Amino acid sequence: MNKKRTRNIGKTKYAIFIHLAALLMLVSNFEAVAKVTSKSTKGVNVSLTRNELTPEVAIYTPAPITHETDSANPKKSNVFTAVEEMPKYPGGDQELLKYLAANLKYPIEAQQNKIEGKVYIRFIVTEDGDIDKATVMKSLNKECDEEALRVIKGMPKWEPGKQNGVNASVYYVIPFHFSLNKNKTITTENTLAKNGAPEEPYPYTTVQEKPRFPGGEYALMQLIFKNLKYPIISRENGVKGKVYVRFTITEDGTVKNPKIIRPLDDFCNQEVIRIIRIIPKWIPGKQNGVNVPVYIDLPITFEIN
């Protein structure tokens, strides 16, 4: 019986569809930085920068797709972390940055107690664009947590995300950085500097010039389609669906740090990682005319026809 099943499946035609998510981000992230720059009576200076989640807190990232039951509104039961069109703040990224800069305040008690660090807030942008279920993913202290939540809950409606052309609820994460150290700055070039010594920059999620595969998207699809293998054990067990992989295109175009952000099964996951690791150099992305590291999210669909 098993041999017959294997033989029949072996004759089944299957297709592997590759969908490029060149718009990059599974969960778009901004870092809002409340920084005390001096002891003057002018109060808190709030600066902002785009940053990706650091590896240290990546374990807090929600599951790729969850199916939460909301008895009050069943329409909001499916919450994605990856969609074809991510939610957008009205007016775009710069307007979001302006909103955060204008509204984030460093709690006085936290300043007095020299509390500094990051608060990570996760929330849902619903199908209607509403902000829902804002929660603290990584806490700093009560006052800073409450301030970050206050700012998130006060945001206006967003343009909702879309999946297959339909509005979808999507998780979004924003880290808030409360810093008292006047020697610690975050530059507009997305590079963290401590005491004048710049660290390796975080990858961007959006840039003025996106990374490009030599020959374009079609050439990338050809390369992946030619080399990607549908694991036999996955086919025989009827495993099908999407694997989302995230990787970095470095300043010199190298493909680095592939990571599964939405798994399927171990065999398909491993095959996707193998493929990403053999991809040659890209034309790097640019911000303000300078090569910068950029995140790429790539969904690969395994489907048996």
UniProtKB/TrEMBL annotation:
Membrane topology note: Single-pass membrane protein
GO BP terms: protein transport; transmembrane transport
UniProt keywords, alphabetically: Cell inner membrane, Cell membrane, Membrane, Protein transport, Transmembrane, Transmembrane helix, Transport
One cellular component (GO) term of this entry: plasma membrane protein complex
InterPro entries, alphabetized: TonB-dependent_transducer, TonB/TolA_C, TonB_C
Signal peptide: none
Main location: membrane
Classification via Pfam families: TonB_C
Highest taxon, organism lineage: Bacteria
Start and end residues of each TonB C-terminal domain: 91-187, 215-305
A GO MF label: energy transducer activity
Localization of this protein: Cell inner membrane
Matching PANTHER family: PROTEIN TONB (PTHR33446:SF2), PROTEIN TONB-RELATED (PTHR33446)
Similarity comment: family membership: Belongs to the TonB family.
Protein name per its UniProtKB record: TonB family C-terminal domain-containing protein
